[in-house]
Amino acid sequence: xxxxxxxxxxxxxxxxxxxxxxxxxxxxxxxxxxxxxxxxxxxxxxxxxxxxxxxxxxxxxxxxxxxxxxxxxxxxxxxxxxxxxxxxxxxxxxxxxxxxxxxxxxxxxxxxxxxxxxxxxxxxxxxxxxxxxxxxxxxxxxxxxxxxxxxxxxxxxxxxxxxxxxxxxxxxxxxxxxxxxxxxxxxxxxxxxxxxxxxxxxxxxxxxxxxxxxxxxxxxxxxxxxxxxxxxxxxxxxxxxxxxxxxxxxxxxxxxxxxxxxxxxxxxxxxxxxxxxxxxxxxxxxxxxxxxxxxxxxxxxxxxxxxxxxxxxxxxxxxxxxxxxxxxxxxxxxxxxxxxxxxxxxxxxxxxxxxxxxxxxxxxxxxxxxxxxxxxxxxxxxxxxxxxxxxxxxxxxxxxxxxxxxxxxxxxxxxxxxxxxxxxxxxxxxxxxxxxxxxxxxxxxxxxxxxxxxxxxxxxxxxxxxxxxxxxxxxxxxxxxxxxxxxxxxxxxxxxxxxxxxxxxxxxxxxxxxxxxxxxxxxxxxxxxxxxxxxxxxxxxxxxxxxxxxxxxxxxxxxxxxxxxxxxxxxxxxxxxxxxxxxxxxxxxxxxxxxxxxxxxxxxxxxxxxxx
Amino acid sequence: xxxxxxxxxxxxxxxxxxxxxxxxxxxxxxxxxxxxxxxxxxxxxxxxxxxxxxxxxxxxxxxxxxxxxxxxxxxxxxxxxxxxxxxxxxxxxxxxxxxxxxxxxxxxxxxxxxxxxxxxxxxxxxxxxxxxxxxxxxxxxxxxxxxxxxxxxxxxxxxxxxxxxxxxxxxxxxxxxxxxxxxxxxxxxxxxxxxxxxxxxxxxxxxxxxxxxxxxxxxxxxxxxxxxxxxxxxxxxxxxxxxxxxxxxxxxxxxxxxxxxxxxxxxxxxxxxxxxxxxxxxxxxxxxxxxxxxxxxxxxxxxxxxxxxxxxxxxxxxxxxxxxxxxxxxxxxxxxxxxxxxxxxxxxxxxxxxxxxxxxxxxxxxxxxxxxxxxxxxxxxxxxxxxxxxxxxxxxxxxxxxxxxxxxxxxxxxxxxxxxxxxxxxxxxxxxxxxxxxxxxxxxxxxxxxxxxxxxxxxxxxxxxxxxxxxxxxxxxxxxxxxxxxxxxxxxxxxxxxxxxxxxxxxxxxxxxxxxxxxxxxxxxxxxxxxxxxxxxxxxxxxxxxxxxxxxxxxxxxxxxxxxxxxxxxxxxxxxxxxxxxxxxxxxxxxxxxxxxxxxxxx
Lengths: 612, 603
Hints:
Largest interface: A-B, 163 and 164 residues
Strand order of the largest sheet of chain B: 6-7-8-3-9-10
Radius of gyration of chain B: 36 Å
Distance between the termini of chain A: 45 Å
Distance between the termini of chain B: 74 Å
Number of helices of chain B: 22
Strand content of chain B: 5-15%
Oligomer: heterodimer
Largest sheet of chain B: 6 strands, mixed
Helix content of chain A: 55-70%
């Protein structure tokens, strides 16, 4: 028997996979490798080559245009009239050709970027679908949504514009240098070279300074949102206790911190050196050119071209102000995505395990359980036995371990100590699929998909409408469904009919009827105490309990009273166990509930039971 | 700050006239007059100095072409160096002050908006969802700030363009005209792109929202999907939604990416024209090479400013709309208005409602000539079907809403005449689903009362429900209970609120009982807490618990805003009227009898 106390065996258990996963290896090698594997995936490789090629060519064309203009001016100054036509046509072709080439470049990089987004999202979604239920139990839906939409979108921006702009800037820094060296005295490379070096260092320092400030801005903004949102959501309390001023001050503190960080960011941006460096470079180049001109090494047309080539440096200077912020965001998004995707689960599917029809005997033997990473046990030495076809009611406050106990039966987690047996076989020895197929859950918060009621009830099982109606009747749902505008075809959800908690619960019960499991876990802990359909709900619950083993988590004293076995949980331990009559006689806590609630004396309570 | 060529900005319908709005916006800049003056000053000289540099360069080139005067050249070069430095320094000061001004204005706006919002009546919050309000206060003010910044940049852009064009105009008319052609072409192109871009952006947003919704639904129902082996189907559907988003986004991206190259083509055509006409002029000796260079470089200098100007209008509109939305928040007329400021001494809790007329909306009267008297210290339970007016009564007494006729008197004085905040501290209100702050249990209990200490908190808990349940929670009183108190159960939240109210010690208690069921242990504690809390004060309870209706002094049955039955539980049951009907519908199943009656055992 495997005793998984503190080091469970982690496997790559996957519950669903849509085919070969080309990114499986790169996911484990860190965010950079992963991003690169996406960028170079499939036909992207061809596009990238074209993009790189067109960027370089376009940059060359810009430089050539300037050289040509320089030559034109030289010719004009000499008085060479015949050359005018040639120059006009050449410059026209070059000046129009360059943007057209850029257009092709941008289109292709967009394709790469959008593909990256689409494929990342697909990968993320499939990966999450394949994760076990225990993983999903620990996630917040809002977080998953933010990852799947926003974080993946940031990856898109990584390519377009960020990386492509960086590459363009890089070519704009390097390629003009070649032209300067080729067409003009090589020493003129001096000024732009100094610029490149000093630009690199001042940019590095700028990025280092602005990073933390931007982070602070974001976090203060988040706090502003949270504080205001909380105050407004609880505005009744705020007004009732006359605390408007207090909330206003709270908000103002955060808004002030935001303003201070904002001003600080402004200071750093104002000091952005590269702009000054560029101006000085152009001036320096000009001085150099003037000197050379005096020595007759360079003519005016060439000076004009040279100045034009230096002006090409404006592009990287201005772009760099914001491009790095995008990259930073993208890398942290990638890390968040990978973090989630790389989580492994501890349950293995045990294909060779038992695969048989369950009767429904459940036995817990000295079960102790900790949630992974927690020190305090949620369940301590829990032992009980429930026979097939019987109902077990679990009573306890929040945090007593009720829901956890139910989760362990489906093997959503493995116990740390002790064992759980179904039909006298340890559940770890069953094939996971077979086990889970025969255990159904009706949850606290009933989830309905936004499809028709018919589809919600028959979910996953091909069923006839007659069968669905039959189970709906057992679940006491048929009547209210008939009252809906389109009855069983009515759409549920945001754009459909709004159902009350009791109605949703009965649909979930109908669903469970259809599946007809041998073991049912029914969590009824969010009912209403004053529901006017209480009779129907009671009936529905009593119907579903028949002929199967049910673990019932409920507050309804009526259901507790009639359970075959009642367990009272407190802080993860069973403090009382037995039938209603037994507990009334032996457990003080249990007595207190009934006495206080119904305002009767204990003797009367016991008498009533004996009469039944 | 954003580089902000926002060609996708939206325009909302606006109600304020431009003039009135501008006037109000400018009033926010009042406290920053000095900084604004500095900003405008530096922006002007910064633009002028940076526009001067290309002119000086052309002067140098002209000189090289003609008489090569070394001293003159050195002088100009030094001038250029100085101008470069000055330009950067001026820009530095301008940016510093500009950020200070924008930051300050946005902060002031936010502060005013938040103050106004927190002091609005409850009816305001009925009409406006919290999310939208928060978005207006935080995000719209952000948009506004960006617009202010862009407006400042605009001034710089306009100055540069004007200055350069004027100089060029004096050098050569035709070439200047060739350059000016590009300006309207720029605008037309930018504006027509804007329309297409906006449409595509909306489509893109919608597609992404569909993806978002689908992901939400998939993972909300993941357990069901897994139980019924539906992963494959979900994956297929997802791919469809994802692919649609891909296609739509790609189309949008194509449109947006075409803008710069298109503007580049315009630039190219203009350069060609310049070379043509300029070349001719140089050949004819009309202009010098240096001047031609000025024109050619000038186009580069004009590119970014022109783009700023072209995309300014929509961004400006977006900013105006944003400020308008914020002002709309601030200007909401309060409905609950006090007519006097009497500070009540300790209230006895005698409530007298006389001929009350109240409706939320024009056609639906909730109370019409309603009368009720409650003595000090009396406990009253109100029952009735939904919509009978139960919560309205409670809210009116708390002065959350204004009534249209009649009067409500507490201790003989109309509640309209009390100082509202002082009055409210003497009323304890427990709503149906109690709201708790994302803070410790202790701080939540102390929320009402600045001077309370831990001992007071312990006492309050001890008296209401006992403190043993606190010890079961991980950090006891110091536990942070999460957003809205989500780390505590429904029942436990109620216990916290009872303790808070006891600590507050009001004269009048208004309690709207929760309808959600609570585990039996906590339920008994709640009953204890309830009993302790209603002791010795006037209590009005909208009852859902059987225990409550059995133990109050008086039960009032409301139907359509009228009292149809009054009395205690036994009397009303004996009558066999509306109360008995309500009992059988809602309360009966909380009774021991009902539980015993469920004899149908599973076979």
